[in-house]
Design a protein that fits this description.
- Two copies of one chain form a homodimer.
- Chain A has two domains: 118 residues, Jelly Rolls; 42 residues.
- Helix content of chain A is 48%, strand content 21%.
- The mean pLDDT of chain A is 86.
- In chain A, strands 1-8-3-6 form a four-stranded antiparallel beta sheet. A four-stranded antiparallel beta sheet of chain A has the order 2-7-4-5, with no helix packed on it.
- The first copy, chain A, is an alpha+beta fold and 192 residues long.
- Chains A and B meet through strand 5, helix 3, helix 5 and helix 8 of A and strand 4, strand 5, helix 3, helix 5 and helix 8 of B.
Chain lengths: 192, 192
């Protein structure tokens, strides 16, 4: 299957597009190839593109203060990869995007994608469904996990919804954090 | 601010809607109130609605085999709550949705929302942006956490992308799982 057709095939799984819309989508994406180990994004750059992988595998990772690599995502063909936060905010990325194999991708820039949403509203529907599904999946993954540190989650909660402690029973907040009410009391005492 | 106006205010932060579109949105949502502790969803039911909270606080939770409650989400006013998976798939939910305080919500059903997307495409844009942001946030939360069990993540990976092991260096997969290559070897030996 030609590269463009793969992209159209996957979009068509969720929204049904006409041949006119198909032509508009195809002309908006650019085909690029990269050799194994080639970087498509480095920290400090804005992630200009979202990539649909038609061949090969890619990863995103960041390097912490101690020089350790942490892999964020690994995607194979027919998957999307980007630093979505940088892509949508146009702020500098902290990530590397690297080809793990020789890859072929279809890429589109943020501004081109915004324009394409106007031309083909069904594409915006496709991305609404894609993000919705991805969000549900990641919620489930989060729900199935424990945080490495209850303190970190506690801090997030205080920052994001500080009046929650005045309004919601502590036993509920503890359950939400995945810790016992006693642990929550200890954290709160330490912080105050 | 009247309830409807709060909803419009928050939608307008992301997409700019006309007064005609505003009227269409307002007429599609129903205002409901619920007393503290009232349930809006129970396991075995399909989650028919997505709720925009205009007053009060709500939580979603499930009860495990041992009878322990696990809170999934807590949301205050101007936030959205639902069991999104059940809402979008129309499959039975595993969750409870409960009012933590006396609440007022604006609710819309799945089919009405789909119809409203056709009438007001900008609302679909709003939800595309909402899910996109929520997905990015949850990715970051996931990235900042460790799994309670590397084995569980390993099993997920095998199920979802089994040929990843033939194509991606084990040291990368270990980093993705947040474990050492040695731990990954041990898991793989145990499983084979």
């Amino acid at each position: 299957m030609p590269h463009n057709h793969k992209l159209i095939y996957y979009i068509n799984k969720w929204v049904s597009i006409t041949s006119d819309e198909e032509a508009k989508i195809i002309s908006a994406f650019e085909l690029k190839s990269a050799a194994k180990k080639e970087l498509m994004l480095e920290p400090g750059e804005v992630c200009e593109y979202i990539y649909f992988i038609t061949k090969g595998a890619m990863r995103s990772y960041f390097v912490d203060d101690k020089g350790n690599e942490h892999i964020f995502q690994i995607r194979l063909e027919n998957g999307w990869i980007s630093d979505l936060e940088s892509f949508f905010t146009q702020r500098k990325s902290n990530y590397y995007l690297e080809a793990l194999e020789d890859v072929e991708v279809l890429r589109i820039s943020s501004s081109r994608l915004e324009a394409l949403y106007e031309e083909v509203p069904k594409l915006e529907r496709y991305f609404r469904i894609l993000f919705q599904k991805a969000y549900i999946n990641s919620l489930e993954r989060l729900n199935a996990t424990m945080w490495d540190s209850a303190i970190e989650r506690y801090n997030d909660l205080v920052k994001e919804q500080s009046d929650i402690f005045q309004r919601v029973p502590l036993v509920y907040i503890a359950s939400y954090l995945g810790i016992t009410p006693e642990s929550l009391s200890r954290i709160r005492k330490k912080k105050s």
